Amino acid sequence: MDDILQGVYDDVINGNRAGVEAGVRKAVEAKLPAAIVLTEALIGAMAEVGARFERQEFYVPEMLVAARAMQAGLAVLRPQLVEDGVKAVGKVVLGTVKGDLHDIGKSLVGMMLEGAGFEIVDLGTDVPPAKFAEAARASGARIIGMSALLTTTMRNMHSTIEALEDLGVRGQVKVMIGGAPVTDAFAKEIGADGYAPDASRAVALAKSLL
Ligand code: B1M
User: Fold this and answer.
1) What is the average per-residue pLDDT within 38-51?
2) Where are the beta strands (DSSP E) in the chain?
3) CATH, domain range 91-209
4) What is the pLDDT of residue 54?
5) How many CA atoms lie within 13 A of 51 on its CB side?
6) How far is the C-alpha of 5 from the C-alpha of 53, rounded, in Å?
7) What spacing in Å lies between the alpha carbon of 199 and ligand 1's midpoint?
């Protein structure tokens, strides 16, 4: 790999945000193609971060600082990506369900998805079913991602799937869910298309759903 790209790659993994920003700027100045900077350095590094998380060499804090460093690099690269016409892998509407204010896991999933090249529409927390459904219709997203941390709010995932059906958009989107109390069996029970236990596997799931 080119030295500049290798530097960005290493800085993302180490969570060195200033280093990533400077490295991406250098790459743009050196006229390296934005798609290569994105896929080899930024997305490549986040894939390695995900792999280290799965091997339990990295934990949530390391994953968070790496994701933040990656996002800082993405912000520097974004104008170049737009200019070069690089397309996102797919769009994901993401939110924590109605009644639930926990957002750390949801945001981490969003950052990891962004790190894998997805465009994220983050609706935040306490998102009513109708708001998910309307966002699915208006954004043209291919995936709806819901997070819940409370056993009392999990059932709102089912209500959201019903809202997607009521608005006639259920057939256009895949539904993925996660959060500490959520299980694969629950995902099947409510008719979701998939469940992921952590942010790294959420990326793998999103890719497989497309
Ligand atoms: Co709350 N809370 N909390 N809380 N809180 C829990 C969830 C709880 C388990 C703590 C406990 O009692 N041991 C408990 C729930 C019990 C239950 O439902 N059975 C609980 C409770 C009871 C409450 C309140 C009701 C407390 C009260 O007020 N009496 C209240 C509810 C408020 C509300 O939501 N309406 C409340 C409030 C809060 C704080 C505001 C103080 C704060 C949230 C701050 C914030 O998010 N900005 C908070 C916190 C921090 C926690 C714990 C300690 C940590 C949650 C967290 O961020 N984990 C939590 C205890 C715990 O989970 N052990 C707890 C780290 C995060 C990275 O993990 O969110 O699981 P997680 O996300 C993972 C995976 O689950 C997965 O990937 C993520 C990354 O690997 N994932 C997905 C998540 N979403 C996904 C979506 C996907 C795929 C994967 O696809 C779309």
Assistant:
1) 89
2) 91-96, 119-122, 143-147, 174-178, 194-195
3) 3.40.50.280
4) 86
5) 7
6) 22
7) 14
Give nearest CA residue, ligand 1 atom 72: 105
What's the gap in Å between 190 CA and the centre of ligand 1?
A: 21
Residues in contact with ligand 1 (CB, 6 Å cut-off) = 60, 99-106, 108-109, 145-147, 149-151, 176-181, 196, 198-199, 202
Check whether 85 has a pLDDT greater than 90. Answer: no
Distance 102 CA to ligand 1 centre (A): 5
Mutate to test the pocket of ligand 1, among 68, 107, 149, 174 (most ligand atoms within 8 A of CB): 149
Model pLDDT for residues 169-195, shown as the tens digit of each residue? 999 999 999 999 999 999 999 999 999
Going from N- to C-terminal start, the domains of the chain cover: 3-84, 91-209
For residues 46-71, average pLDDT: 91
Phi-psi region of 109 (alpha: psi -120 to 50; beta: other; left: phi over 0): alpha
CB 1 within 8 Å of CB 54? no
Range 3-84 classified under CATH 1.10.1240.10: yes
**Torsion region of 140: left, alpha or beta (phi above 0 gives left; psi -120 to 50 gives alpha):** left
Percent of the chain's residues with pLDDT above 70: 100
User: Which of 97, 102, 109, 113 has most ligand 1 atoms within 8 Å of CB, for mutation?
Assistant: 102
Instruction: Report the chain's mean pLDDT, rounded to a whole number.
Output: 94
Q: Is the pLDDT of residue 82 over 80?
A: no
Q: What is the mean pLDDT of residues 106-118?
A: 88
